[in-house]
Design a protein that fits this description.
This protein is of the alpha+beta class. Helix content is 40%, strand content 17%. The chain is built from five helices and three strands, in the order αβββαααα. The chain has helices at 7-14, 64-77, 82-86, 90-96, 105-125, and strands at residues 27-32, 39-46, 53-61. Helix 1 (7-14) packs across helix 2 (64-77) and helix 4 (90-96) crosses helix 5 (105-125). The longest helix has 21 residues, at 105-125. The chain is globular, with a radius of gyration of 14 Å. The relative contact order is 0.21. Bound molecules: FE2/S2 (inorganic) cluster.
Length: 138
């Protein structure tokens, strides 16, 4: 049965924003889902003075929803502070995509986790405490 994807999911899947890598990134994070095997990697360029994320790129080996979630999530944190980026939830990403099919919600979790891991990498490199990650069931 074909899943019912929103026009926004299709747009971000067919035409994803911020695909790629950042050389000498200030933070790099990866998240994977052992059930489906999808993997997402996020690269951050952070301005040391303002703590603003000046650039963000992703590489996702995964399903359409994972790619659309990475694209939307990177758009949502670009130009934000590291704190604002930390507060981005997977449900906000799914909402910005006009929703994901229920069995695809875990794909947006991958984006939240990859961003958190990248932000923690940034924190660790700058002598800050790493924040424990919350684990979503799905
Ligand atoms: Fe696993 Fe989408 S099916 S991330």
């Amino acid at each position: 049965m074909a899943l019912d994807y929103s026009a926004k999911v299709m747009d971000h899947f067919m035409n994803p924003r911020n695909v790629g890598e950042i050389a000498n990134a200030d933070g790099v994070g990866e998240a994977g889902n052992p059930k489906c095997g999808d993997i997402m990697k996020i690269y951050l360029k952070v301005n040391d003075d303002t703590k603003i994320i000046e650039d963000v790129k992703f590489k996702t080996f995964g399903c359409a929803s994972a790619i659309a979630s990475s694209s939307m999530a990177t758009e949502m944190i670009k130009g934000k502070t590291v704190q604002e980026a930390w507060d981005l939830t997977n449900s906000a990403v799914a909402e910005a995509l006009d929703g994901l099919p229920p069995i695809k919600m875990h794909c947006s979790v991958l984006a939240e986790e990859a961003i958190h891991t990248a932000l923690n990498d940034y924190r660790a490199k700058h002598g800050m405490d790493v924040i424990p990650l919350e684990h979503h069931e799905d």
